[in-house]
Amino acid sequence: MQRKKIILGLAAIFLMVGLVSAATYTMWSHTWSVTVQVGATAVQYSIITGLPTTLDLDTEYPLVIRCINTAAIPYDVKAYLKCVGQAGFDKEDIFVRWKTYDNNAGEWIDFGGGFEEFYLLGRVPAGYSGGVEGGSFTDRAGYWIDWDGTYSTIGAGVTLTHYLWVTIYGSAPVGAYQLSVDVTGQGA
Amino acid sequence: MFKLQRGIKKKGWVAILVLILVITFSAQLALGRKATSQFDPMVDCHVVKEFPRKLTVGYSYEAEYKFRNIAKSTMSITVHFTIHSDRHVKIKSGEWIVLITINQKVVKCTEVKPGVFETKSFSVNPKSWRFMTIKVTLSANVVPSNYKLETDLLSKK
Phi first, then psi: what are they for A142, rounded to 5°? Predict the structure, then answer.
């Protein structure tokens, strides 16, 4: 008899709990249709100081580029540098010092060798100190060179200013040159 | 003989228990269907600001709502925010990031299924207003397509 009461009691509780828990009502519902599109680019670049149209050999010229990640998420970006010159132009004929300033943090980015170090590309001058060698360009077809960087993350809303000092050595043939910088990226 | 009678009685109780279970589950199913198909007028909700019609991958957008409990008793409310797409059916978890605030305070919101977000329940007193914002951030993995953004206020009262 006691057992029956227990079973009946449990069943009643189960029934009550089951009915109460099921009573979920939609109070209000609203549906809105949208179209998702891909933006032109989330990371926008502007050239602050461009290279002059005529460069003297063995002279250093600044190139300043500012980039802003306008997206709400971080972006992984990398740069691709290409320099097309004259026949005989190779990776030993160019030197690039590269330094990056984080405008949001108000400090220079450490490339790994110590604070405010330069990132060095190409043929580093003899006796030069104060930079991290980032590798060299690759010779292409005997008249142009390129360098493909690695991805680094630029945070949401972050502004970075890249300072590049470009030197073409006297070993390079004179004539017309074309330097281009391509930046590719993807949301991180 | 005694043993047989006891056995029959035992089976009878089991049958009653099974019957109660069947009734309970049937009632749950029936009420569940009712819940999704009927609208209860106990919440007065208004859209203050809609999401833009065109959203861009990598950007954030916000919609604003205000609602009040017009019932006589305190109500427990849960917000469901669902992203559907007829074309891009397989939305992956983490593609959309959703942040919901009630009266400028962030409410815990969980992606219970890919594209389906649910807040924890919160109480709303009779006649008191709540101001709600839903902020969506589209990660770079969101596939460009047509989507429907559905906002539901559910009550477990």
Answer: 75, 5
Q: Report pLDDT for A171.
A: 93
Helix, strand, coil share of chain A (percent; to 5):
10, 50, 40
Confidence of residue B90 (pLDDT cuts 50, 70, 90): confident
How far apart are alpha carbons A184 and A43 in whole angstroms?
9
Is A14 part of the contact surface with chain B (CB cutoff 8 Å)?
Answer: yes
A7–B31 CB contact, under 8 Å:
no
| A25 contacts on B by Cβ (under 8 Å) | 35, 38, 40, 154-155, 157
Please report the DSSP string for B18-37 in residue order. HHHHHHHHHHHHHHHHHHHH
Question: Does B29 have pLDDT greater than 60?
Answer: no
Place of tokens 């926008």: A44
A129 touches chain B (CB under 8 A): no
- Among A26-30, B55-59, B110-114, which range has the highest average pLDDT? B110-114
In angstroms, the CA A69 to CA A73 distance is: 8
The C-alpha atoms of residue B117 and residue B109 are separated, in whole angstroms, by: 6
Burial of A2 (0-12, 13-18, 19+ CB in 10 A): exposed
- DSSP bridge partners of B56: A37
Search chain A and give the residue with CA nearest B13: A4
pLDDT winner (highest mean) among A30-39, A53-62, B67-76, B105-114: B105-114
Q: What is the pTM of this model?
A: 0.50
Q: With beta carbons less than 8 A apart as the criterion, state whether B31 and A21 touch.
A: no
C-alpha radius of gyration, chain A, whole number = 30
